[in-house]
Write a structure and sequence with these properties.
Layout lengths: L4 E2 L1 H8 L3 H9 L6 E2 L5 E4 L2 H13 L4 H9 L9 H9 L2 H24 L27
Antiparallel strand pairs: 1-3, 2-3
């Protein structure tokens, strides 16, 4: 039984990812293709799921090295199942929760700083208490 393969253009159209991004993913070891006798790339249909996983992971801020590590744990001899994908994403849940807490703190600090009226995280008395040079005014350096 012959499996249907996708050209880079077809893969781009189906995945919503630019051909140049597909080539980048391939150089980074995230996806693979085979070459035809005319040296043209062909992607297995299963690569669509990998590309979707890469895109979702990038939107979550997961570094490419961690995405590569996760993808390398998937089986080569079959299409990944929903259990495979759930296992991979579960490992990142705590990291995401930690980042959400960190971002909420940043947001709350920013709101507090804007509330004081100075609009400067560097010289704000709320976020930078005891700043001796703040009395001389804002600026990146002391002249």
């Amino acid at each position: 039984m012959e499996t249907h393969e996708l050209t880079p253009g077809e893969m781009s159209l189906r995945s919503g990812v630019a051909v140049s991004a597909l080539h980048f993913y391939e150089r980074e070891g995230l996806i693979a293709s085979r070459r035809t006798s005319g040296n043209q790339r062909r992607y297995a249909r299963e690569t669509l799921r990998r590309v979707a996983f890469i895109r979702m992971s990038q939107r979550l801020g997961i570094p490419l090295a961690r995405i590569r590590e996760a993808l390398s744990s998937l089986p080569d001899d079959r299409v990944p199942t929903s259990k495979d994908w759930a296992r991979l994403s579960a490992g990142w849940r705590q990291d995401l929760d930690d980042r959400i807490v960190h971002l909420q703190r940043l947001r709350d600090n920013l709101t507090g700083c804007i509330g004081c009226g100075c609009l400067s995280l560097k010289t704000c008395q709320l976020t930078n208490p005891g700043d001796v040079l703040a009395e001389r005014g804002p600026g990146a350096s002391r002249l």
